Fold this sequence. Notes:
- This protein is about 0% helix and about 50% strand.
- It is an all-beta fold.
Amino acid sequence: MRQHAGDSFYVVTDADGADNYKVCRAPANNPTKPNWIDVLPSSDEVIIEDGEMFHNHLILFQRSKQGDPFIRVLALDTNTTHDIQLPEDERVGVITSLANPNFDDTRVRFSVSTPLQPRIEYTYDLASRRLWEEYREQLDATTAFDPSLFVCERLWAPSREDANVFIPMTVGEDPL
């Protein structure tokens, strides 16, 4: 991902052994690799999956080593970060960026889908750090599925490459 803001380009890259990606800033007038400055280093604990640029913020869609998706906000003027706090029951799932067409906006829109909830759309205000639900996809009324009777847990299984594979498991809240 390469995005432009002000007099800089922001690059999400795996250069220099950043297997889980890192964020670099480069001057717009000479964005060649020797001029890149690390803004957010690579981490063994999280992987950057996607990003979206706003005038004053870079929004990073990340996943922790434990499999939890989360959103990190990088304030471009201060190079400080904070995470958008999602409800606990929505941390086993997928976060997707929604249409955010206004570069100067202070709000970011995204959705969260879990094994128990098809889609919830959120808006997050970058200035006030307030999160609110815009839309919750309703389950088909003709089905007998009641998500309140289940919990979603994280399990890990070893792979042939000596790495653990994350498996979301949905089970009845009170199994026999």
